[in-house]
Structure formats: structure tokens, C-alpha cells
Amino acid sequence: MEQQERIRTMEALLDAARAAVDALDEALDGYEKVREGIDRLEAYYTGDEWRQDFEDDEAGRLPDNLKRGVLSEDGIYDLLEDDREVLVRLLETAAAVLRRG
């Protein structure tokens, strides 16, 4: 590779990597802000309150205009599974990069 071409290539890699690292850092900031909420959702979903709210919804005891995606049988479950998969992916990616040294 000719010198100027190499420099242009490395410059493009630097720009792309900088943008990706900045975006990941910002995304992690956002994730950390909602992490406590994810824990609360899991406690709600695995506790008695979710079941009671779900049953009341099924029985028509909740107002029609109440947003209730949280009461879908898959909404919170899918979020929790996706959260775990993303965390595993982060760990695997971090471990692979750190092993390369």
C-alpha cells in the first residue's frame, strides 16, 4: 500500500472507530440510567403485583385508555431476555478484545 493511501485508510479507520466508541459510551450512559428501572420491572414481573394487574386487566377492571404494554405476557419477559443477551455480548466482546491485548 502506498504511503498516502495507507494514511487515508488509517484516517478512515480512526474516524469510524472514534464515532463507534463515542456512540457506545453514550449508549452505556443511557443504559446505566435505566438499569434500576429494568431491575424494578423484573421484580414487578416476578412478583404478585404483575399477576394481579394482569388478572384485573383480563377481567376488564382497568380503564380502556390505560396504556398496558407492561401487562402483555411477553413485553417484560422479552425485554429481560434481550437485556441478558446484550450483557453477555458486551462481556464476550470485552473479553475477546482484552485477550488480544
Topology:
Layout: H1 3-46, H2 48-58, H3 75-100
Give me a quick take on this structure.
The protein is mainly α. The protein is built from three helices and no strands. Helix 1 runs antiparallel to helix 3 (75-100).
Q: Provide mean pLDDT, rounded.
A: 97
Distance between the termini: 26 Å
Biggest sheet statistics: none
Stretches where pLDDT is under 50 for at least 5 consecutive residues are none
What overall form do the CA principal axes indicate? elongated
| Number of separate helices | 3
Please estimate the helix content: over 70%
Order of helices and strands: HHH
The count of DSSP E runs of length 2 or more, i.e. the number of strands, is 0
Number of domains: 1
Fraction of residues in β-strands: under 5%
Using only C-alpha atoms, the radius of gyration works out to: 22 Å
Oligomer: single chain
**Structural class label:** mainly alpha
